[in-house]
Write a structure and sequence with these properties.
With 480 residues, this protein is of the alpha+beta class. Helix 8 packs antiparallel against helix 9, helix 10 packs parallel to helix 11 and helix 11 runs antiparallel to helix 12. The N and C termini lie far apart (118 Å). The mean pLDDT is 88. It binds adenosine-5'-diphosphate. The site of adenosine-5'-diphosphate has 21 residues, from helix 11 and helix 12. Adenosine-5'-diphosphate binds next to helix 11 and helix 12.
Length: 480
């Protein structure tokens, strides 16, 4: 039962008692009985008490109504999450409480608005940070070099696909794990550790290191950088591994090439110089010796010319400035011419030259001189890399079904190891195992490849077996 109800009940009881006492006193007075003074006192007391309770009840109802209003307003605020001022009638007793309450609510409203705006700002910043994170990750994932990022505890926090492949780990399974347990290469782990522990004094360094990949060692240039926070603390390390195996190989090949070319140039030059000096000094007394000397000088000059031509032709074809004279020509006729030229060389090495040439009327469209150069390079190689007593076979056949003319140059020579086969057409590439057999520049096959495939849209291939021999073949469309 509420306080108002209790007050109401008390008022009703007291009023009923007062009214009963008054009725009793009046009746007694009307019948001529005197009313005892205590009874009158009770009567007055009951009336005063009833009156007081009545006033109290009216007062309490007012207060109760105001409290109800305040409660409704506070409940609305709670429901709508909107803080407003609490309104009560002026002069109401509750207004003494609502004033400080409103002040408090104003403070709360101000602080809530401030918090809301800070929260909005934080949400925007968090969205920007997450977009930037995705952007950075996309950049790292698109890099072809292997990238590894660690934190201050040497735990892996980011890596791209190239790194996963190179160091055989899965990023998902290795995240937040120590690189000790994740990266298969101990040296790399040590380098990352060292970089992090040296701190800022060591912000960036480049180290060359070899990592085994599927059984073959690859050289990497590893750039290690510290990640430094705005308060100058090292928060991790970024390692970028760039594969420099090919670059190093090319650099080595270029060095080899320069020394080979200079040797190749020097040898005929030295021989020309020697014979010219002998002629000047009159050491060739008879006409026969003199003409022998002239022939040697002429052959050496041709050799020099061929070498320089090879270098120039490759660079002309590569830069696209080569002049191609296309005309119908017969591979059989060209091969015959080559065989005539190399016959002396072959005889000198006691090599048998076999030929199997299709009729001359099968023609291809091409640059005669270039095709001559190609067959000459293939046959010269066969002679160079076949030991004495071997056999060289040159065949030109016509495949009418496919409408191509095929030229095969086979030998029973040194052959090419399988691991070298994919590289023999690369510029400056020389097979290590065959280097002792003949001098060269590693340019002959590159030129053939360029002439057949780049200039004539043909196809050049090789099959070979170490110690047994090789067959170089090319094919060009027959002119119908
Ligand atoms: P080079 O001037 O060294 O002969 P090439 O480009 O003509 O250069 O040949 C590249 C390499 O391929 C050679 O160094 C040689 O080792 C190998 N090669 C080419 N032809 C043959 C062959 N017929 N038999 C064995 N090895 C060959």
């Amino acid at each position: 039962m509420t306080t108002a109800k209790r007050l109401g009940l008390a008022t009703v009881v007291l009023t009923t008692c007062g009214a009963g006492a008054a009725y009793y006193a009046t009746m007694m007075a009307m019948k001529g009985y005197s009313v005892p003074s205590e009874s009158l006192n009770y009567l007055v007391f009951a009336l005063v008490a009833a009156l007081t309770l009545l006033i109290l009840m009216v007062f309490w109802r007012n207060v109760h109504r105001s409290v109800g209003k305040v409660r409704t307003q506070l409940e609305t605020m709670a429901k709508t999450e909107q803080i407003a001022l609490v309104m009560v009638d002026s002069g109401n007793e509750l207004s003494q409480i609502t004033r400080p309450l409103n002040e408090l609510l104003s403070i709360v409203r101000r602080q809530t608005e401030q918090l809301r705006s800070e929260c909005r700002e934080l949400q925007i910043q968090s969205r920007i940070a997450s977009a930037e994170k995705h952007h950075t990750e996309a950049i790292i994932f698109s890099i072809s070099d292997a990238v590894i990022v660690t934190n201050r505890f040497d735990e892996l926090i980011l890596a791209n696909e190239a790194a996963e492949k190179l160091l055989s780990f899965r990023l998902e399974a290795s995240l937040r794990k120590n690189i000790d347990r994740t990266l298969s290469d101990g040296t790399l782990v040590r380098l990352i550790r060292e970089t992090r522990s040296h701190g800022r004094s060591f912000t960036r360094k480049v180290v060359e290191h070899s990592i085994d990949q599927k059984g073959s060692p690859k050289t990497f240039s590893i750039t290690l950088s510290c990640v430094v926070t705005p308060n100058e603390e090292v928060s991790g390390v970024v390692a970028v591994l760039h594969d420099v195996t090919r670059e190093k190989e090319i650099a080595r090949m270029k060095t080899d090439f320069v020394s080979n070319v200079s040797h190749e140039l020097k040898t005929p030059l030295a021989s020309i110089k020697a014979y010219v000096e002998m002629l000047i000094d009159g050491e060739a007394e008879d006409e026969k010796t003199r003409s022998e000397f002239y022939e040697i000088i002429s052959a050496e000059t041709d050799r020099l010319h061929r070498l320089i031509e090879n270098i120039l032709n490759i660079s002309r074809i590569e830069s696209g400035v080569v002049k191609v004279v296309r005309e119908p020509c017969s591979l059989t006729a060209i091969a015959k011419q080559v065989l005539e030229v190399v016959a002396v060389q072959a005889r000198a090495k006691n090599l048998t030259l076999n030929e199997q040439l299709a009729p001359v009327y099968y023609q291809v469209e091409g640059d005669r001189d270039m095709l001559y150069q190609s067959i000459l390079n293939l046959v010269s190689n066969a002679i160079k890399y076949t030991p004495e007593g071997g056999t060289i076979s040159v065949s030109v056949t016509a495949d009418e079904r496919r409408q191509v003319a095929v030229c095969d140059v086979s030998d029973t020579g040194a052959g090419i190891p399988p691991e070298d086969l994919p590289h023999v057409f690369d510029k400056f590439y020389r097979v290590q195992a065959n280097k002792k057999l003949a001098k060269g520049t590693g340019l002959g096959l590159t030129l053939v490849k360029h002439i057949i495939e780049t200039v004539h849209d043909g196809k050049l291939s090789v099959t070979s077996e170490s110690g047994k021999g090789s067959t170089f073949s090319f094919e060009l469309p027959i002119l119908m």
